[in-house]
Design brief:
The chain is of the alpha/beta class and 556 residues long. It contains 14 helices and 27 strands. β26 and β27 (462-468) form a beta hairpin.
Length: 556
């Protein structure tokens, strides 16, 4: 019997076995965000996304030495530490927590084996990798289906997964998450017309008087920033009109803000975004301001805007990055998977280690009772940011109903706030019923507060009065913090960085708010009451610049 050669050698058993093992490893897959939340009822699934839609995938590669990073942040942020203010450089931070090189190589190899050659590092140590792909490529990569999802109230369309995604088993231990996939962006709303506003409204002059601000910035290298997401744009004309209306005889801002991001300007500005930049520049005169805007769909490519902002901070040099950010962004704590939320905490710690302060509006839902249980909000519930609640009144401030606060269901209570929280839970009157299901051992928030009602915002050249929400409070407080940074820089000292250990150790330097309460309680009750010391509606209180500047200048 004769045989005819086919021109290819018959594979031996060893080769066949290797190919089988490789095929088996590739076919076995795991879900890395196992607790992704279902699509909320106020979003509508329109149908499958077109395969040609473009996405910017962000892949979060697992970092190492996270326990060392946490200790480093606390060392440079605790006023009792001999290393207070000795912040790490961006390079030192990224060297400390760099992913294992093998993990980075595996992720790039996976992308390339899937026909994706666009993978590129967007951080100094490759802990963030970006890849521009089509929906068709992403679906093949993640073994999942993208859908077009629409939010009618805000006219927002995104492309996301409805049922989660998987990665090959051999890569599951190398990745924290991939986005945009299972997380929907929060929809922005504003509250107007609350009755307790000061008679003449909360303009820059009134806020400076209320919080004892009698200075403007002088340090040449001091910078502050606000963030904006999902269609919230900046307008130079709006800002200049606001300054013309409210800044007569005082300095507001320091020239036009520097713009950073993938979508900062457009045909229409946003009330939320203009509120932030108008307020922070109104409180902190003669301090360089920046506007960081991320739309989630820049240049026809969908992305996850909040994570893109964090990766951009990570990839911005120490010389160029603002040392203070105010963000009016929030959603329920379980809107993010635990894996994604853990990664965000690490990104917040990276910023704190570099001397960057992160302030967040605590939310506008009060105690936020849903299904007879209090629901915490994030990022304000993260231990690694400073959450800002809301107050009303003028000569005597009080906590207001919209001010969100309470206890995290995910993060344990940090040591720097335990005494203050224990005092509140032991002595405050009219606390919510325990049946509301709050977690008294969790991270408590807000940390501080500021005015949160009666603001006038110029948007699209129209002054809009009566704007309220903790999105007013965060840039107000941030303006005061920017001036504290200014004083320290003039004295040859560092910026304040991660604020919370300082806030609780110097709580007597803040204006303690003793009256008022949050709303949003269960069964028609109030939420959290204001009380002496820290409370879950106003934190330790509102800023007093004169007291605080003396305290921070006394630190190393």
């Amino acid at each position: 019997v004769s045989t005819q050669s086919t021109g290819r050698e018959t594979p031996n058993m060893k080769t066949l076995l290797c190919l089988c093992i490789l095929a088996l490893a590739t076919s076995q897959r795991l879900t890395i965000e196992t607790d992704a939340k279902a699509i909320p009822l106020d979003w509508t699934i329109v149908g499958r996304s077109a395969g040609s839609v473009r996405l910017e995938l962000l892949l979060a590669v697992k970092q190492r030495n996270l326990d060392q990073l946490e200790r480093a942040v606390l060392r440079v942020s605790d006023p009792r530490s001999t290393e207070y203010g000795k912040h790490l450089t961006n390079q030192q931070v990224h060297d400390l927590i760099a992913p294992h090189p093998h993990d980075v190589d595996r992720v790039y190899a996976w992308l390339e084996s899937s026909g994706i050659s666009s993978g590129v590092a967007v951080s100094p140590n490759h802990d963030w990798i970006s890849a521009e792909v089509t929906v068709r490529q992403a679906e093949d990569l993640l073994q999942a289906e993208y859908h077009q999802i629409y939010h009618p109230d805000t006219n927002t369309t995104v492309h996301r997964l409805v049922r989660g995604y998987t990665v090959p088993t051999h890569l599951a231990d190398a990745l924290d998450l991939i986005a945009p996939t299972v997380h929907l962006p929060p929809t922005t709303t504003k509250t107007t017309g609350l009755p307790e506003a000061p008679l003449l409204g909360n303009g820059p002059k009134h806020l400076r008087e209320l919080y004892s601000v009698d200075v403007v910035g002088q340090a040449t290298d001091n910078k502050m920033a606000v963030t904006a997401f999902i269609g919230q744009k900046y307008s130079k004309a709006d800002l200049h009109e606001f300054w013309g209306l409210f800044c007569g005889g005082i300095a507001c801002g320091k020239g036009d803000p520097f713009l950073v991001g993938d979508a900062t300007t457009g045909i229409l500005s946003g009330v939320e975004s203009m509120l932030d930049i108008e307020t922070i520049t109104g409180v902190a005169g003669n301090v360089t301001a920046e506007f960081w805007g991320f739309a989630g769909h820049a240049q026809g490519t969908q992305n996850e805007p909040f994570l893109k902002w964090l990766s951009t901070v990570s990839n911005t040099s120490d010389q160029n990055v603002p040392k203070l950010f105010s963000t009016s962004y929030g959603e329920d704590e379980d809107a993010w998977s635990v894996s994604a939320a853990d990664r965000m905490n690490t990104e917040f710690q990276k910023a704190g280690a570099r001397g960057i302060s992160l302030l967040y509006a605590s939310g506008d839902e009060g105690a936020n009772c849903k299904s007879d249980k209090f629901v915490p909000e994030t990022p304000s519930s993260s231990p690694w940011v400073t959450a800002v609640g809301g107050t009303g009144g003028s000569s005597k401030e009080f906590g207001i109903g919209l001010s969100s606060g309470g206890f995290s269901n995910r993060w344990p209570q940090p040591s720097w706030q335990k005494d203050a929280v224990h005092q509140y839970m032991s002595t405050a009157k009219n606390l919510p019923a325990k049946s509301s299901g709050y977690n008294v051992s969790g991270r408590a928030y807000p940390d501080i507060s500021a005015q949160a009602q009666g603001f006038t915002v110029v948007s699209n050249r129209i002054p809009e009065p009566g704007v309220s929400g903790t999105s007013c409070a965060s840039p107000t407080a941030a303006g005061v913090i920017a001036l504290l940074n200014d004083a320290r820089l003039l004295a040859g000292k560092s910026t304040l960085g991660f604020l919370n250990p300082l806030i609780y150790s110097q709580s007597e330097q803040w204006n303690d708010i003793l009256t008022g309460s949050s709303g949003g309680g269960c069964t028609g009750e109030d939420g959290w009451p204001a009380a002496q010391g820290w409370d879950a509606v106003t934190g330790v209180g509102t800023p007093n610049y004169k007291k605080l500047v003396a305290a921070v200048l006394a630190l190393p």
